[in-house]
Design goal:
Elements: E1 2-9, E2 14-20, H1 22-27, E3 33-37, E4 45-53, E5 58-64, H2 68-74, E6 81-82, E7 84-89, H3 100-105, E8 109-113, H4 117-129, E9 135-139
Parallel strand pairs: 8-9
Antiparallel strand pairs: 1-2, 1-6, 2-5, 3-4, 3-7, 4-5
Length: 151
């Protein structure tokens, strides 16, 4: 089982969960995703790895409540567990394979909106960890729907 260590409402329909998943966190890279199930009869849904910490063994997911499974996920709290949490899956960001020195020479701009900010964050964080400056523009239908502004 994969325990929910932290639950945070980012706005009225978007939730951030920090999950205890050491094996996933150890191998996760910017651009990848996981598949989870809330219970043994639950639907399998893919979600972006919004953040990860290999040392703490945590993976952060961000989701918008839009259907039956995300509604079930929304009712879970800190201390509850997910039935399945598989990953990391998919390809890492293409940026990771580029030369750091070449990346430093580029001017980069990320543009994201609403919950689409979640997959942008780990890439921008990785670039920042490499000493690379990037600009980010985030937007939404209204100010209340903007997420990850401070991050």
């Amino acid at each position: 089982m994969y325990e929910i260590l932290k639950r945070e409402e980012l706005n009225e329909t978007v939730i951030r969960l920090v999950i205890n998943a050491p094996r996933v966190a150890k191998k996760a890279q910017a651009g990848q995703f996981i598949i989870l199930r809330t219970d043994e009869n639950g639907e399998r849904i893919p979600l972006t790895v919004a953040d990860y910490d290999a040392e703490k063994g945590t993976v952060t997911i961000i989701f918008q409540v839009v259907g039956a499974t995300t509604e079930k996920l929304n009712h879970l709290n800190e201390g509850d567990s997910l039935h399945d949490f598989v990953g990391p899956l998919g390809c890492k960001s293409d940026l990771i394979d580029e030369s750091i020195e070449e990346l430093k020479e580029k001017k980069m701009l990320f543009i994201a909106g609403g919950v689409g900010t979640a997959p942008v964050y780990p890439q921008v964080k990785w670039l920042h960890e490499q000493g690379i400056d990037v600009d980010v523009i985030i937007g939404a239908r209204n100010k209340e729907l903007i997420i990850l502004e401070e991050e």
